[in-house]
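Table S5 (text form). Sequence records supplied for joint modeling of the two-component complex.
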Amino acid sequence: MPHDGPQSFWTKYIFSQDHKTIAIQYTITALLVGLFGLVLSWLLRAQLGFPGSFQFLNPGSYYQILTQHGMIMIVYMLTAILLGGFGNYLIPLMVGARDMAFPFLNMLSYWVYFLSVIVLMAAFLVPGGPTGAGWTLYPPLSALPNAAPGSGWGIKLMLISLVIFIAAATMGGLNYVTTVLQFRTRGMTLMRMPLSVWGIFIASVMALLAFPVLFVGGVMLLLDNVLGTSFFIPAVTLFGQQLPREGGNPLLFQHLFWYFGHPEVYIVVLPAMGIASDLISTHARKPIFGYTAMVIALAAIATIGFIVWAHHMFVSGMNPYFGFFFAVSTLIIAIPSAVKVYNWLLTLWKGNIHFTVPMLFGIGWISTFIIGGLTGLPLGNVIADVPLHDTYFVVGHFHLVMGVAALMAIFGGIYHWFPKVTGRMLNETLGKLHFWVTFVGSYMIFFPMFLMGIVGVPRRYFDFNVLQYLPPQTGGLNLFITIAALTVGVAQLLFLGNLIWSAMKGKRADANPWRAATLEWQTPATPPAHGNWGEQVPTVHRWAYDYSVPGAAQDFIPQNVARTSDPSPVAHPQERGAQRAG
Amino acid sequence: MKEGTLNGRDGYREPSHISTGQVGLWLFLAVATMLFAALLSAYIVRMGQSDWHPFPKPGLLWFNTGVLLLSSVSLRWASSALRQGNQKRAQLGFVAGTTLSVLFLIGQIWSWSVLQQLGYFLNTNPSSSFFYVLTAIHGLHLLGGLIVALWAARNTERLRLFVMYWHFLTIVWVVLLGLIVLT
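The corresponding structure-token record, covering 765 residues in total, follows.
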């Protein structure tokens, strides 16, 4: 082996600069953090399903749990696992590189992320507990003393943790983007990259541009909270006392927050789109339909995604012309999103569909993304958003489209790439059970929320008994959702058990168990050794989706197989043009 | 091969003149641009509120600006000297540039104490709050750069990238100063 990896335990497993080890570190940390966020959601559901049955759940702790569940899942779980986990593992292997562009920075990125998680968790141990100001951290609630639970230590630790996380995400993002731009192997043109890499690449660019804005908002909020500045705090009377502040602008924070917050949705969704594309194409044994359109749609969603942020603020009393602009830009995003959905469906159309666990999750992704996406359309319209904004309709919408849908792609991706990472297969029976309980159960949780939202059940409420206008069925629906949520939760424990058991005792996997065409399955060793490719990095001769090529010996042709042995290639669109010209 | 020096391409390069470090730096400059753009837009929005009262601008800021411009010029001089193989001139320019940068940072902190003697603290008024935040964040970027400077000093490519970063921070400061002085 030309690239002998580091030998000591510390440099091999702890402070490793190998992108594969860092990916596993990111993934395990994010999954554990996600498990914690899942348990928090059980507590919320326990209160809503069985109001008043649990002594430790009071309005204050409910808000703390709500806030932490949201922040943990969006930032510390989804963003970390998709960019830090999948991004780290897949980018170098899929573009044919030996490692990331800046391996030391990559290692630092993980450990800084780890530190941000420690600070986040420390908030549960300090006096007053973690902040309960909502995951959006709106001032003045988040900036004033004694306004929300956890407004002493909790909010400060939250903001410090976010600032640390942003440093980690920036270090990671610089690596992912630079590696894609500079470290692609011979023949790997941009338009030959698998869509997973495209999704992660564009999401990383978005993260680099969006996170600094949250950083600014976070630092200014911290100064308001700690040092008595008045960036966001208007003239306020707190407990009968006029505070020595005036003129601060809470809406300014909302703009800074959502200028990050909306791109953040796509930072999560774009990698999931890319991963789902690869799952669907590989397991349907068919080239992805409309590859070029898929890439353009990703770029279009990312670009437009930066000018839609104020649709989260329709109820803030903005100028109607602004509302009109942001409604139009929001609805335009439906076009590239629909292009992608049609292309996934047309990839499945007449495909040789293998109902493997990754494929089930790929189909689950399409389903939840469609329902979650379609329910976003009324919310993108000012006139429909105003009555729906503070109801469970919004909760159902964003959980389906960026929670469940993204998780479908993440789970599918884990079942798909686990054999490459560990050299063993995940248990299929447990996997199918995991899929069906999660898929059906998620609809049982979130579909009733649309109905509740339409009849006006407000979100963020600790107890609905105070609201006389609600139909009596609300309590029954809440109980139903809670039972579904706990059942889905148990299925996730099954999944974690499957991961641990299969990593040690699972069936041995060969190098390419799904017979996939992308480069990561063509490594000389499984799991890939340090340096990934042995003596020589592969040369790429074709796009990533040569499945079921007519006349070929097998129903897939790896990207590193030369074109001469290729009787009738399903040529890449660009190459087709070149052939015609030639 | 040494850990951490793996080259992804095994010697193969696309016909491109852009180095990996260059790409990484450009991306980082994009990140920093977003950071300062967010600060500036927050400044402009907050400025419009009724409680915004301008504070007296210390004349020292003009002196500091001159020092930062000189540091940028001497580092540029060092970089081209190193490219031509003139070690001695490069060293002179580098030492002059970094010393002037340190002088700029000291000057900025001094301007803080001038303001505090006049009774303008971080939480006195949003205008002074922004002044402290802008100068602090800009100063931290310079400070981080100075730590990297030692690692960049003797390598032509690294010094070139370092100087590009310094020019960027100089331009950012001139923009910030313009906004601070005009409002």
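Note: The beta strands of chain A are 237-238, 241-242.
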